[in-house]
Protein backbone atom coordinates (compact mmCIF):
# COMPACT_ATOMS: atom_id res chain seq x y z
CA UNK A 1 0.00 0.00 0.00
CA UNK A 2 1.11 3.58 -0.68
CA UNK A 3 2.12 5.99 2.08
CA UNK A 4 -0.25 8.82 0.92
CA UNK A 5 -2.54 10.22 3.64
CA UNK A 6 -5.83 8.32 4.01
CA UNK A 7 -9.11 9.78 2.74
CA UNK A 8 -10.69 8.94 6.11
CA UNK A 9 -8.88 8.54 9.40
CA UNK A 10 -11.17 7.14 12.11
CA UNK A 11 -11.13 5.14 15.31
CA UNK A 12 -12.99 2.16 13.85
CA UNK A 13 -13.51 0.82 10.34
CA UNK A 14 -16.63 -1.35 10.09
CA UNK A 15 -16.38 -3.57 7.01
CA UNK A 16 -19.85 -4.48 5.69
CA UNK A 17 -23.12 -2.55 5.71
CA UNK A 18 -25.56 -5.41 6.38
CA UNK A 19 -27.77 -5.40 9.48
CA UNK A 20 -24.86 -6.39 11.74
CA UNK A 21 -22.34 -3.87 10.36
CA UNK A 22 -24.74 -0.92 10.35
CA UNK A 23 -25.97 -1.69 13.89
CA UNK A 24 -22.39 -1.94 15.17
CA UNK A 25 -21.34 1.24 13.37
CA UNK A 26 -24.20 3.22 14.91
CA UNK A 27 -23.61 1.77 18.39
CA UNK A 28 -19.87 2.53 18.27
CA UNK A 29 -20.58 6.04 16.99
CA UNK A 30 -23.12 6.67 19.76
CA UNK A 31 -20.43 5.56 22.23
CA UNK A 32 -18.20 8.38 20.99
CA UNK A 33 -15.93 6.58 18.51
CA UNK A 34 -15.41 7.92 15.02
CA UNK A 35 -16.47 5.28 12.53
CA UNK A 36 -16.29 4.56 8.80
CA UNK A 37 -18.79 1.90 7.70
CA UNK A 38 -17.94 0.56 4.25
CA UNK A 39 -20.22 -1.69 2.24
CA UNK A 40 -23.04 -1.87 -0.23
CA UNK A 41 -26.46 -1.34 1.37
CA UNK A 42 -28.73 -4.05 -0.03
CA UNK A 43 -32.29 -2.65 -0.05
CA UNK A 44 -33.80 -5.33 -2.29
CA UNK A 45 -36.78 -7.30 -0.96
CA UNK A 46 -36.14 -11.05 -0.89
CA UNK A 47 -38.85 -12.30 1.44
CA UNK A 48 -36.45 -12.34 4.38
CA UNK A 49 -37.40 -11.00 7.80
CA UNK A 50 -35.69 -11.02 11.18
CA UNK A 51 -37.37 -11.80 14.46
CA UNK A 52 -35.64 -9.57 17.00
CA UNK A 53 -35.90 -10.73 20.58
CA UNK A 54 -36.02 -8.77 23.84
CA UNK A 55 -32.24 -8.29 24.16
CA UNK A 56 -32.10 -6.87 20.61
CA UNK A 57 -35.05 -4.55 21.24
CA UNK A 58 -33.32 -3.26 24.38
CA UNK A 59 -30.20 -2.60 22.28
CA UNK A 60 -32.11 -0.58 19.67
CA UNK A 61 -34.08 1.21 22.39
CA UNK A 62 -30.93 2.14 24.34
CA UNK A 63 -29.47 3.61 21.13
CA UNK A 64 -32.69 5.54 20.47
CA UNK A 65 -33.31 3.66 17.19
CA UNK A 66 -36.46 1.76 18.07
CA UNK A 67 -38.91 4.64 17.33
CA UNK A 68 -37.59 4.54 13.74
CA UNK A 69 -38.19 0.76 13.45
CA UNK A 70 -41.22 -0.13 15.54
CA UNK A 71 -43.93 0.95 13.06
CA UNK A 72 -42.63 -1.64 10.59
CA UNK A 73 -42.42 -4.48 13.12
CA UNK A 74 -45.02 -6.97 14.37
CA UNK A 75 -45.05 -8.26 17.95
CA UNK A 76 -44.32 -11.96 18.63
CA UNK A 77 -46.41 -12.97 21.60
CA UNK A 78 -46.51 -16.73 21.21
CA UNK A 79 -44.44 -19.43 19.46
CA UNK A 80 -45.97 -22.82 18.65
CA UNK A 81 -43.93 -25.83 17.50
CA UNK A 82 -45.69 -28.65 15.68
CA UNK A 83 -44.06 -31.99 14.84
CA UNK A 84 -44.80 -32.57 11.15
CA UNK A 85 -42.15 -35.26 10.62
CA UNK A 86 -44.66 -38.14 10.40
CA UNK A 87 -42.26 -40.03 12.69
CA UNK A 88 -43.69 -43.13 14.43
CA UNK A 89 -43.17 -41.33 17.77
CA UNK A 90 -44.40 -37.85 17.05
CA UNK A 91 -43.65 -35.17 19.60
CA UNK A 92 -46.57 -33.23 21.10
CA UNK A 93 -47.09 -29.62 19.99
CA UNK A 94 -45.50 -27.12 22.35
CA UNK A 95 -46.52 -23.50 22.83
CA UNK A 96 -44.41 -20.80 24.40
CA UNK A 97 -46.17 -17.62 25.56
CA UNK A 98 -44.18 -14.47 26.35
CA UNK A 99 -46.46 -13.63 29.27
CA UNK A 100 -45.23 -16.81 31.03
CA UNK A 101 -41.89 -15.04 31.52
CA UNK A 102 -43.42 -11.65 32.31
CA UNK A 103 -43.04 -10.10 28.85
CA UNK A 104 -45.82 -8.74 26.63
CA UNK A 105 -43.93 -10.14 23.60
CA UNK A 106 -40.77 -12.16 22.90
CA UNK A 107 -39.78 -9.54 20.39
CA UNK A 108 -40.77 -8.23 16.98
CA UNK A 109 -40.47 -9.33 13.36
CA UNK A 110 -39.35 -6.91 10.63
CA UNK A 111 -38.44 -7.23 6.94
CA UNK A 112 -34.65 -7.44 6.71
CA UNK A 113 -34.36 -4.96 3.83
CA UNK A 114 -36.58 -2.46 5.68
CA UNK A 115 -34.38 -2.78 8.79
CA UNK A 116 -31.21 -2.31 6.71
CA UNK A 117 -32.70 0.68 4.89
CA UNK A 118 -33.72 2.39 8.16
CA UNK A 119 -30.32 1.71 9.77
CA UNK A 120 -28.50 3.07 6.70
CA UNK A 121 -30.60 6.26 6.86
CA UNK A 122 -29.75 6.68 10.55
CA UNK A 123 -26.04 6.01 9.87
CA UNK A 124 -25.99 8.52 7.01
CA UNK A 125 -27.32 11.29 9.23
CA UNK A 126 -25.03 10.58 12.23
CA UNK A 127 -22.16 12.96 12.75
CA UNK A 128 -18.85 11.18 13.26
CA UNK A 129 -20.05 8.23 11.18
CA UNK A 130 -19.14 7.93 7.51
CA UNK A 131 -21.28 5.47 5.54
CA UNK A 132 -19.57 4.78 2.24
CA UNK A 133 -21.23 2.34 -0.17
CA UNK A 134 -18.02 0.89 -1.58
CA UNK A 135 -16.10 -2.37 -1.51
CA UNK A 136 -12.92 -3.01 0.47
CA UNK A 137 -10.33 -4.50 -1.86
CA UNK A 138 -7.41 -4.86 0.49
CA UNK A 139 -6.53 -4.28 4.12
CA UNK A 140 -3.19 -4.23 5.93
CA UNK A 141 -2.87 -4.80 9.67
CA UNK A 142 0.08 -2.57 10.58
CA UNK A 143 1.52 -2.31 14.11
CA UNK A 144 -0.23 1.00 14.93
CA UNK A 145 -3.19 1.11 12.55
CA UNK A 146 -5.06 -0.67 9.80
CA UNK A 147 -5.09 0.67 6.26
CA UNK A 148 -7.88 -0.33 3.90
CA UNK A 149 -8.04 0.39 0.19
CA UNK A 150 -11.39 0.52 -1.55
CA UNK A 151 -12.37 -0.44 -5.08
CA UNK A 152 -12.89 3.26 -5.92
CA UNK A 153 -9.30 4.06 -4.92
CA UNK A 154 -10.09 5.65 -1.52
CA UNK A 155 -8.07 4.73 1.53
CA UNK A 156 -9.04 4.47 5.16
CA UNK A 157 -6.88 4.43 8.27
CA UNK A 158 -8.26 3.23 11.61
CA UNK A 159 -7.15 1.91 14.98
CA UNK A 160 -9.43 -1.12 14.68
CA UNK A 161 -11.23 -3.03 11.90
CA UNK A 162 -14.56 -4.65 12.74
CA UNK A 163 -15.23 -7.45 10.26
CA UNK A 164 -18.97 -7.46 9.51
CA UNK A 165 -18.49 -8.41 5.87
CA UNK A 166 -20.41 -11.67 6.00
CA UNK A 167 -19.62 -15.36 5.80
CA UNK A 168 -16.81 -15.02 3.21
CA UNK A 169 -15.23 -12.11 5.08
CA UNK A 170 -12.25 -10.65 3.22
CA UNK A 171 -11.18 -8.76 6.33
CA UNK A 172 -11.13 -11.95 8.42
CA UNK A 173 -9.11 -13.76 5.73
CA UNK A 174 -6.61 -10.88 5.40
CA UNK A 175 -6.12 -10.94 9.18
CA UNK A 176 -5.24 -14.64 8.92
CA UNK A 177 -8.09 -15.83 11.15
CA UNK A 178 -9.15 -19.31 10.10
CA UNK A 179 -12.76 -20.47 9.72
CA UNK A 180 -14.30 -23.92 9.51
CA UNK A 181 -17.35 -24.12 7.22
CA UNK A 182 -19.85 -26.86 6.54
CA UNK A 183 -23.03 -27.24 4.56
CA UNK A 184 -26.48 -28.73 5.20
CA UNK A 185 -28.51 -30.46 2.47
CA UNK A 186 -31.12 -27.72 2.72
CA UNK A 187 -32.19 -24.48 1.06
CA UNK A 188 -34.36 -21.90 2.84
CA UNK A 189 -37.22 -20.52 0.79
CA UNK A 190 -38.33 -17.12 2.07
CA UNK A 191 -41.37 -15.10 1.02
CA UNK A 192 -43.90 -12.69 2.47
CA UNK A 193 -47.52 -13.86 2.46
CA UNK A 194 -50.93 -12.21 2.68
CA UNK A 195 -53.60 -14.48 4.14
CA UNK A 196 -57.27 -14.63 5.03
CA UNK A 197 -57.07 -15.19 8.80
CA UNK A 198 -55.35 -13.11 11.50
CA UNK A 199 -52.01 -14.44 12.85
CA UNK A 200 -52.84 -13.17 16.36
CA UNK A 201 -49.13 -12.43 16.86
CA UNK A 202 -48.37 -16.16 16.97
CA UNK A 203 -45.40 -17.65 15.14
CA UNK A 204 -45.93 -21.29 14.13
CA UNK A 205 -43.06 -23.66 13.39
CA UNK A 206 -43.79 -26.96 11.60
CA UNK A 207 -40.91 -29.41 12.05
CA UNK A 208 -40.70 -31.43 8.83
CA UNK A 209 -38.18 -34.09 7.78
CA UNK A 210 -36.42 -31.52 5.59
CA UNK A 211 -36.28 -28.88 8.36
CA UNK A 212 -38.66 -26.34 9.89
CA UNK A 213 -41.33 -24.47 7.95
CA UNK A 214 -42.09 -21.34 9.97
CA UNK A 215 -44.73 -18.64 9.71
CA UNK A 216 -43.82 -15.40 11.49
CA UNK A 217 -46.28 -12.52 12.00
CA UNK A 218 -45.78 -9.35 9.99
CA UNK A 219 -47.20 -5.86 10.34
CA UNK A 220 -50.55 -5.26 8.63
CA UNK A 221 -50.75 -3.00 5.59
CA UNK A 222 -53.89 -1.00 4.66
CA UNK A 223 -54.44 -3.19 1.58
CA UNK A 224 -53.29 -6.45 3.25
CA UNK A 225 -54.52 -6.67 6.85
CA UNK A 226 -53.13 -10.18 7.53
CA UNK A 227 -49.47 -10.77 6.63
CA UNK A 228 -46.76 -13.22 7.68
CA UNK A 229 -43.30 -14.17 6.52
CA UNK A 230 -42.30 -17.71 5.66
CA UNK A 231 -38.97 -19.49 6.20
CA UNK A 232 -39.24 -22.99 4.76
CA UNK A 233 -36.24 -25.33 4.78
CA UNK A 234 -36.28 -28.00 2.07
CA UNK A 235 -33.99 -30.12 -0.09
CA UNK A 236 -32.17 -28.42 -2.97
CA UNK A 237 -34.22 -30.38 -5.52
CA UNK A 238 -37.52 -29.30 -3.92
CA UNK A 239 -36.26 -25.70 -3.84
CA UNK A 240 -35.48 -25.91 -7.57
CA UNK A 241 -38.91 -27.32 -8.29
CA UNK A 242 -40.67 -24.64 -6.23
CA UNK A 243 -38.56 -21.88 -7.78
CA UNK A 244 -40.19 -22.77 -11.11
CA UNK A 245 -43.79 -22.73 -9.77
CA UNK A 246 -46.26 -19.98 -10.61
CA UNK A 247 -47.01 -17.74 -7.56
CA UNK A 248 -50.51 -19.20 -7.06
CA UNK A 249 -49.22 -22.77 -7.18
CA UNK A 250 -46.47 -21.99 -4.66
CA UNK A 251 -48.97 -20.24 -2.36
CA UNK A 252 -51.13 -23.37 -2.58
CA UNK A 253 -48.20 -25.60 -1.52
CA UNK A 254 -47.43 -23.31 1.42
CA UNK A 255 -51.07 -23.34 2.49
CA UNK A 256 -51.11 -27.13 2.45
CA UNK A 257 -47.79 -27.45 4.32
CA UNK A 258 -49.07 -25.21 7.14
CA UNK A 259 -52.39 -27.07 7.38
CA UNK A 260 -54.44 -24.05 6.16
CA UNK A 261 -54.11 -22.48 9.63
CA UNK A 262 -54.19 -18.94 8.23
CA UNK A 263 -56.71 -19.63 5.46
CA UNK A 264 -56.19 -18.79 1.78
CA UNK A 265 -52.76 -17.34 1.00
CA UNK A 266 -51.12 -15.27 -1.71
CA UNK A 267 -47.47 -14.29 -2.17
CA UNK A 268 -46.79 -10.67 -1.24
CA UNK A 269 -43.44 -10.05 -2.97
CA UNK A 270 -40.50 -11.93 -4.45
CA UNK A 271 -39.09 -15.19 -3.05
CA UNK A 272 -35.56 -15.73 -1.77
CA UNK A 273 -33.61 -19.01 -1.85
CA UNK A 274 -30.68 -19.44 0.57
CA UNK A 275 -28.45 -22.54 0.71
CA UNK A 276 -27.90 -23.53 4.35
CA UNK A 277 -24.46 -23.67 5.90
CA UNK A 278 -22.59 -23.33 9.16
CA UNK A 279 -19.32 -21.72 10.14
CA UNK A 280 -17.19 -21.29 13.18
CA UNK A 281 -14.03 -19.16 13.48
CA UNK A 282 -10.70 -19.88 15.18
CA UNK A 283 -10.80 -16.58 17.09
CA UNK A 284 -13.23 -13.68 17.48
CA UNK A 285 -10.44 -11.10 17.61
CA UNK A 286 -6.82 -10.53 16.74
CA UNK A 287 -4.35 -7.71 16.24
CA UNK A 288 -6.55 -4.69 15.28
CA UNK A 289 -9.53 -6.83 14.34
CA UNK A 290 -12.80 -7.96 15.94
CA UNK A 291 -15.29 -10.23 14.17
CA UNK A 292 -19.06 -9.79 14.44
CA UNK A 293 -22.20 -11.08 12.68
CA UNK A 294 -21.94 -13.67 9.94
CA UNK A 295 -18.21 -12.95 9.62
CA UNK A 296 -18.00 -14.57 13.08
CA UNK A 297 -20.72 -17.26 13.09
CA UNK A 298 -23.20 -18.89 10.78
CA UNK A 299 -25.99 -21.43 11.25
CA UNK A 300 -29.42 -22.17 9.74
CA UNK A 301 -32.31 -19.87 10.71
CA UNK A 302 -33.86 -22.15 13.33
CA UNK A 303 -35.17 -20.35 16.42
CA UNK A 304 -34.32 -16.96 14.81
CA UNK A 305 -30.95 -16.52 16.49
CA UNK A 306 -28.52 -15.10 13.86
CA UNK A 307 -28.96 -11.34 14.04
CA UNK A 308 -29.90 -11.48 17.72
CA UNK A 309 -26.49 -13.04 18.34
CA UNK A 310 -24.84 -10.42 16.11
CA UNK A 311 -26.38 -7.56 18.07
CA UNK A 312 -25.02 -9.11 21.27
CA UNK A 313 -21.60 -9.11 19.54
CA UNK A 314 -21.99 -5.39 18.85
CA UNK A 315 -23.16 -4.54 22.36
CA UNK A 316 -20.26 -6.53 23.90
CA UNK A 317 -17.74 -4.90 21.55
CA UNK A 318 -18.96 -1.41 22.46
CA UNK A 319 -18.55 -2.28 26.14
CA UNK A 320 -15.04 -3.69 25.58
CA UNK A 321 -13.92 -0.62 23.65
CA UNK A 322 -15.47 1.80 26.14
CA UNK A 323 -13.61 0.02 28.95
CA UNK A 324 -10.33 0.09 26.98
CA UNK A 325 -10.75 3.80 26.31
CA UNK A 326 -11.48 4.49 29.98
CA UNK A 327 -8.22 2.70 30.88
CA UNK A 328 -6.27 4.55 28.18
CA UNK A 329 -5.54 1.27 26.32
CA UNK A 330 -5.07 1.12 22.54
CA UNK A 331 -8.51 -0.10 21.30
CA UNK A 332 -6.91 -2.18 18.53
CA UNK A 333 -4.51 -4.10 20.75
CA UNK A 334 -5.11 -7.78 21.40
CA UNK A 335 -4.98 -7.05 25.14
CA UNK A 336 -7.86 -4.58 24.82
CA UNK A 337 -9.90 -6.98 22.65
CA UNK A 338 -9.39 -10.09 24.76
CA UNK A 339 -12.48 -9.43 26.98
CA UNK A 340 -14.58 -9.25 23.81
CA UNK A 341 -13.52 -12.77 22.82
CA UNK A 342 -14.11 -14.04 26.35
CA UNK A 343 -17.56 -12.43 26.55
CA UNK A 344 -18.80 -13.82 23.24
CA UNK A 345 -17.26 -17.30 22.84
CA UNK A 346 -19.76 -19.24 25.02
CA UNK A 347 -22.93 -17.63 23.64
CA UNK A 348 -21.79 -18.19 20.04
CA UNK A 349 -20.77 -21.84 20.48
CA UNK A 350 -23.98 -22.62 22.44
CA UNK A 351 -26.16 -21.33 19.55
CA UNK A 352 -24.02 -22.82 16.75
CA UNK A 353 -23.96 -26.28 18.37
CA UNK A 354 -27.56 -26.21 19.65
CA UNK A 355 -28.97 -25.30 16.26
CA UNK A 356 -26.75 -27.86 14.53
CA UNK A 357 -28.09 -30.63 16.81
CA UNK A 358 -31.73 -29.53 16.44
CA UNK A 359 -31.45 -29.29 12.66
CA UNK A 360 -29.68 -32.66 12.27
CA UNK A 361 -32.21 -34.34 14.59
CA UNK A 362 -34.90 -33.47 12.04
CA UNK A 363 -32.87 -34.62 9.04
CA UNK A 364 -31.93 -38.01 10.52
CA UNK A 365 -34.71 -40.55 10.09
CA UNK A 366 -33.71 -42.77 13.01
CA UNK A 367 -36.17 -43.87 15.67
CA UNK A 368 -33.95 -43.29 18.76
CA UNK A 369 -33.27 -39.73 17.58
CA UNK A 370 -37.01 -39.15 17.00
CA UNK A 371 -37.67 -40.49 20.50
CA UNK A 372 -35.11 -38.17 22.06
CA UNK A 373 -36.44 -35.11 20.20
CA UNK A 374 -39.99 -36.10 21.10
CA UNK A 375 -39.06 -36.61 24.77
CA UNK A 376 -37.37 -33.20 24.81
CA UNK A 377 -40.41 -31.43 23.39
CA UNK A 378 -42.70 -33.42 25.70
CA UNK A 379 -40.64 -32.23 28.68
CA UNK A 380 -40.91 -28.62 27.47
CA UNK A 381 -44.68 -28.96 27.02
CA UNK A 382 -45.24 -30.47 30.50
CA UNK A 383 -42.62 -28.89 32.78
CA UNK A 384 -43.30 -25.18 33.30
CA UNK A 385 -39.93 -24.18 34.85
CA UNK A 386 -38.04 -25.95 32.03
CA UNK A 387 -40.17 -24.24 29.40
CA UNK A 388 -39.68 -20.85 31.03
CA UNK A 389 -35.90 -21.39 31.30
CA UNK A 390 -35.75 -22.18 27.56
CA UNK A 391 -37.81 -19.09 26.72
CA UNK A 392 -35.58 -16.85 28.82
CA UNK A 393 -32.45 -18.33 27.23
CA UNK A 394 -33.89 -17.65 23.78
CA UNK A 395 -34.76 -13.99 24.32
CA UNK A 396 -32.49 -12.86 27.17
CA UNK A 397 -29.51 -15.23 27.49
CA UNK A 398 -28.18 -16.04 30.93
CA UNK A 399 -24.82 -14.72 32.07
CA UNK A 400 -23.55 -11.19 31.67
CA UNK A 401 -25.66 -9.06 29.34
CA UNK A 402 -23.75 -6.12 27.85
CA UNK A 403 -24.64 -2.72 29.32
CA UNK A 404 -26.62 -1.73 26.21
CA UNK A 405 -28.92 -4.72 26.77
CA UNK A 406 -29.50 -4.39 30.47
CA UNK A 407 -32.96 -3.24 31.60
CA UNK A 408 -33.75 0.33 30.60
CA UNK A 409 -32.03 2.82 32.84
CA UNK A 410 -29.38 0.35 34.05
CA UNK A 411 -26.90 0.93 31.25
CA UNK A 412 -24.29 3.66 31.62
CA UNK A 413 -25.11 6.89 29.78
CA UNK A 414 -23.73 6.89 26.27
CA UNK A 415 -21.37 9.71 25.36
CA UNK A 416 -22.29 12.07 22.53
CA UNK A 417 -20.89 11.11 19.13
CA UNK A 418 -17.54 12.57 18.14
CA UNK A 419 -16.53 13.97 14.76
CA UNK A 420 -14.64 11.89 12.21
CA UNK A 421 -11.23 13.12 11.18
CA UNK A 422 -11.33 13.42 7.41
CA UNK A 423 -7.85 13.17 5.91
C1 LIG B 1 -33.72 -17.27 5.75
C2 LIG B 1 -33.11 -16.56 6.91
C3 LIG B 1 -33.90 -16.14 7.97
C4 LIG B 1 -33.33 -15.52 9.07
N1 LIG B 1 -34.13 -15.14 10.12
C5 LIG B 1 -33.56 -14.57 11.21
C6 LIG B 1 -34.35 -14.18 12.33
O1 LIG B 1 -35.58 -14.33 12.33
N2 LIG B 1 -33.72 -13.61 13.41
C7 LIG B 1 -32.38 -13.42 13.43
O2 LIG B 1 -31.86 -12.90 14.43
N3 LIG B 1 -31.60 -13.76 12.39
C8 LIG B 1 -32.15 -14.33 11.28
N4 LIG B 1 -31.39 -14.66 10.21
C9 LIG B 1 -29.98 -14.30 10.24
C10 LIG B 1 -29.80 -12.83 9.85
O3 LIG B 1 -30.53 -12.53 8.68
C11 LIG B 1 -28.33 -12.58 9.60
O4 LIG B 1 -27.60 -12.94 10.76
C12 LIG B 1 -28.04 -11.16 9.33
O5 LIG B 1 -28.88 -10.56 8.38
C13 LIG B 1 -26.62 -11.17 8.78
O6 LIG B 1 -26.14 -9.95 8.87
P1 LIG B 1 -24.61 -9.63 8.55
O7 LIG B 1 -24.63 -8.15 8.49
O8 LIG B 1 -23.70 -10.31 9.50
O9 LIG B 1 -24.27 -10.29 7.12
P2 LIG B 1 -24.68 -9.85 5.67
O10 LIG B 1 -26.11 -9.46 5.62
O11 LIG B 1 -24.20 -10.94 4.77
O12 LIG B 1 -23.86 -8.53 5.39
C14 LIG B 1 -22.52 -8.53 5.03
C15 LIG B 1 -22.27 -7.30 4.22
O13 LIG B 1 -20.88 -7.20 3.95
C16 LIG B 1 -20.74 -6.75 2.62
N5 LIG B 1 -19.39 -7.08 2.15
C17 LIG B 1 -18.90 -8.28 1.79
N6 LIG B 1 -17.63 -8.16 1.38
C18 LIG B 1 -17.30 -6.86 1.49
C19 LIG B 1 -16.14 -6.11 1.20
N7 LIG B 1 -15.04 -6.66 0.71
N8 LIG B 1 -16.17 -4.77 1.43
C20 LIG B 1 -17.26 -4.17 1.94
N9 LIG B 1 -18.39 -4.84 2.21
C21 LIG B 1 -18.41 -6.17 2.00
C22 LIG B 1 -21.86 -7.42 1.86
O14 LIG B 1 -22.15 -6.71 0.68
C23 LIG B 1 -22.99 -7.36 2.87
O15 LIG B 1 -23.77 -6.19 2.72
C24 LIG B 1 -31.94 -15.29 9.11
C25 LIG B 1 -31.13 -15.72 8.04
C26 LIG B 1 -31.71 -16.35 6.95
C27 LIG B 1 -30.83 -16.81 5.81
Helix share of residues?
Answer: 25-40%
CATH superfamily: FAD/NAD(P)-binding domain
- The total beta strand count reads 21
Share of β-strand residues: 25-35%
What bound compounds does this protein have?
flavin-adenine dinucleotide
- Number of separate helices: 10
Radius of gyration: 22 Å
Q: What does the average pLDDT come to?
A: 90
Q: Report on the biggest sheet.
A: 9 strands, mixed
How many structural domains can be distinguished in the coordinates? Answer: 1
Per the CATH scheme, the topology name is: FAD/NAD(P)-binding domain
The low-pLDDT segments are 409-423
CATH architecture: 3-Layer(bba) Sandwich
Seen as an oligomer or otherwise, the chain set is: single chain
Q: Kindly, what is the distance between the CA atoms of the first and last residues, rounded to a whole number of angstroms?
A: 16 Å
Coarse morphology: globular
Amino acid sequence: MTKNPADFDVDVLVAGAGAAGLSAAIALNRAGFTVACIGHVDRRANGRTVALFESSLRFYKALGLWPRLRDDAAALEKITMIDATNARFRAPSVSFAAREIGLSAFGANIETNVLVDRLAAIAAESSGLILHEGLIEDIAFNPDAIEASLADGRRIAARLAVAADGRNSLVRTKAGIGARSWTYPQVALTVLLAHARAHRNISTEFHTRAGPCTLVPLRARADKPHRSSLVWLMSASEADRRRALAPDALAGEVEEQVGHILGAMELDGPCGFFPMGGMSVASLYGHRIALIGEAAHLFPPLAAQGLNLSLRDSAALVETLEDARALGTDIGSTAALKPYGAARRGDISLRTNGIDILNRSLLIEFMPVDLMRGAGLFAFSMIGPLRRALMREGVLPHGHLPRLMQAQGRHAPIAASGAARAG
